[in-house]
Design brief:
Layout lengths: L1 H30 L6 E4 L10 E4 L8 E2 L13 E7 L7 H14 E12 L1 H7 L12 H13 L4 H4 L5 H10 L9 H11 L2 E6 L22 H5 E7 L4
Parallel strand pairs: 1-2, 1-4, 2-3, 4-5
Antiparallel strand pairs: 5-7, 6-7
Length: 240
């Protein structure tokens, strides 16, 4: 309840005081002589040096207040890189498509988009009808399941009375404002439909582009958990 109240207060302050401040942030960043222009959508606590960091609920004054479900406040062909981690699953599928369409618009020709989001295939892989040896989970999957059930589900006796994967999957799809959980084929389809090229699946913290290496906030969960649950896709706006 307190967390929600803080968010409401931050949002109200941003609406009341933030327009000129945000316009100034954008202008100062884009006027900087740095050769690469980099936008992070939904940074949360993962503030990245040298990026224009944005969030719906900015935590500090150097973060741009931004709603990814409406038109991004940038001219066409503005950014070399756009990065978004665990954001798109919090908005509806049509709004997610629109967010990626806007990313395509504001990327420069040759610019690269990197999107990380929970992977539906990861949830499917966690499910087991039985615990026969042929269906055993990996050690990391089992650790994830046990940690999640012990720490992420409130009112265990009611919502997860036994350590079944069924409870984790239901929670993961419904909780934290999740609205749509993607997989590789759905993200690849959207990116291709919007005109992106060179669509590639990447490992967390890894990229062919130096700028996009080590950008995920992997420290917010136990070691290996973000990599296990996350799908990362990169794609390029074709050069004209």
């Amino acid at each position: 309840m307190r967390k929600k109240l803080r968010r409401v207060i931050r949002r109200a302050l941003a609406s009341h005081l933030g327009f000129k401040h945000d316009q100034g942030l954008i202008a100062r960043y884009l006027d900087n002589s740095a050769t690469e222009k980099k936008l992070q959508l939904g940074c949360g606590r993962n503030w990245l040096e040298g990026w224009l960091n944005s969030d719906y609920f900015p935590r500090t004054s150097d973060i741009l207040q931004l709603d990814v479900t409406v038109a991004l406040p940038f001219e066409d062909d503005t950014f070399d890189y756009i990065f978004s981690e665990h954001v798109i699953e919090h908005i509806s599928y049509p709004k997610g498509v629109y967010m990626l369409e806007e990313c395509f618009r504001v990327l420069k020709p040759g610019g690269v988009l990197r999107v990380g989001t929970p992977d539906l295939a990861f949830l499917v892989n966690l499910y087991r009808e039985d615990e026969t040896p042929g269906h055993a989970r990996t050690q990391m999957e089992q650790e994830f399941l046990e940690y999640f059930l012990a720490n992420e589900i409130k009112d265990r006796e009611t919502n997860a009375p036994v350590d079944f994967d069924t409870y984790l999957i239901n929670k993961f799809v419904r909780a934290w404002g999740h609205e749509f959980i993607y997989d590789e084929k759905s993200l690849r389809y959207i990116m291709k439909t919007l005109g992106f090229a060179d669509i590639t699946r990447c490992e967390v913290m890894e990229s062919r582009h130096t700028t996009l290496c080590n950008v995920e906030n992997v420290d917010r969960k136990p070691h290996g958990h973000i990599a296990l649950e996350t799908i990362v896709m990169e794609s390029t706006k074709p050069a004209r």
